[in-house]
Each structure stands twice: as C-alpha cells, then as structure tokens.
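W.,

You were right to be curious about this one. When I first looked at the sequence I had no strong expectations either way, so I just let the prediction run and decided to look at it fresh. Below is the sequence, 331 residues in total, followed by the output.
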Amino acid sequence: CIRKWTYTVQSGDAGVDLLLTGTASSAETDPAVEDTLTLTVAQPGLSVEVEASVDGRDINPRVTEGKTILYTITVENTGNVVLNGVRLAPEFKVDGAEVPLTLDLVTGTEAACGNSENFTLAASREEGDACSWEATYLVVDEDKGADLVLTGTAEAAFDGDDLEERGDISLTVEDPGLDFALTASVDGNSLTSRSSIAAFGQTIIYTITAENTGNVALDIDAFDTFFEGAGDLTFAPVDAEKCSATDDFVLAVQEICTFTGTYVIAEEDKGASGMRLDASVERRTNTGSVPEGAEFDVDVADNALGLAVTAEDSEGNPVNADDKVAAGQKI
C-alpha cells in the first residue's frame, strides 16, 4: 500500500529540517515498524566582514598619521547550499577619492578564492566556508582629517535569485588642532599688543582662549603664565568644571576654555616699555608634549611734566646762567 501527502514549502521554512515519520503496525507484527525521511529546506546566505588593525590591535574609528593599516575582507557562505560565481568588489576611498588597494589571499585555497571576481563557496552548516583577503595602507601626513572608507560588496546567485551583501569600515585620520589666543582690554576698549598705552590706575582685563579646532580630544598637560608687571597677575577659568588653570584637563572637540585675569596698573609700572604677559599651554601627544602660546605687550604712560629755560645771544650763542650780560646786549 502506498499513501502520499503533499506539503508546500513556506518562505519561513528556509533553513529548517522537514521530518516525516511513518509508522505501520498490524495484529500480526510486534513491535510496529517505523521510518523517517528528513529534508532540509535550502537557505542561501552570504556575509561580508571588513576589519582594520594597526600593530596587531583592532582600531575604530580613529587612526594616526604614520601608521600602517591592515585591512581584512572576509566573504563567508552563511547558508546551507553551495554558492557559485561569487564576486567580490572592494572599494577604498580617501575623503571620497578612490584609491587602489592590492588584495592578497590569506584564508581559503587559491583554487577556490584566488580570483575574487569568480569563486565558489561551499556550504557548511557548521562553520561556513570563507575566503579572506588582506590589504595594507600607509597613512600619510596629507591624510590628516580625512575619512578612510573600505567597502566590500559580494554578489552571488542561487536558483535564479540574486544575493548581495556589503560590509564596510570607516576610519578618520586624527588631525589635532589648538587655537590659542590672548587679548586685553581697558574700560571695555580692546588693546593692541605692542601699540597700546595704558595709564597708572587703569584696570586691564586679560582674556586667554584655548579652542580645540581639530577632530580629536586634546589632553592639556599644563597652563602657565609669565607677567612682567610690578604686581601679581593670576588667571581663573570661566568654566571651572571643564577647564583648569592649575591641573591637567581634557579639551573636547570644538570645545573652548576661557581664562580671565585682572590687573590694576601700579605706580611702579609707570614708564614701563612692554609690560609683557606670556601665556601658554602644553598638549600631550603620542610622541610628547607640544607647547602652544601667545604674548601681549602694553606700554605704561609716565605723566610727569618737565620744564627747562635756556638763553642765547643775538648770534645764537648759548648764554649760561653764570655768564655776565652787558648793557644793550640782546638776549
């Protein structure tokens, strides 16, 4: 006797096992007989993974100039059927401009993966068959601030259906930048370094700004000032929670730290030529500390008044206080 059943495979059955078990028994047979048929529903799958490392360590999302990036692209069969005619299209761009990369096979056989334009990935329900390639790129000074984007696109076909998967990684080259400025004002009027004159008793307000103009946070190691006035000049941060005039602090991207100091010109400063203020910070880098600084010079007026009386005769000769003057002589 033969009995038949019909089952229509559903889209949600992809990758699952369909088991049909038949059991037959009769009064004359003990125990019953049984048989099972297992069918696996095809489930094609493809994945692309793109990784980057420097000196053996994974990096993301920033890299520094002078480093060599090791890129790895892995194409894996994640399904349960053989994929033929798999194609890999890598694309590497530096700030939007395409740059060629040479791929070297590191995982998989040359017979199966040697040609990234056409290779076969066999199905493996356990670990999946894969092909991997590596490429290197040296980050140069001109790359500072640039985005490095590597994209791998894999395509394949199975039973008339097209498969496409894409993987990518984006790195940004660090470009640290610090804008350090020093300004001064009296009674709300801005002073100009080396060309402004202040007077005894006036109050000078100094302002120092440190702005992170780069694309990476800055470690500020030290804040320092040197002042040549007769009195003391100290600075304090406007926002003491994120900036410090005495301790190290971190200056985030696009963040600004402002410091202010007030100085009343003393009588001892009168006549000073170039009452100078030097201010600086040091930012820590991978190779050491980099100083950033500015200076401001202000001349101080001496309001003393001098008077001198001189004499000369009709011929222009000087007449001194001890000289005798004759009657009728024109002085």
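Here's what jumped out at me. The first strand starts at residue 17 and ends at 26. And, maybe more interesting for your project: The two ends are 157 Å apart (CA to CA).

Coffee later to discuss?

I.
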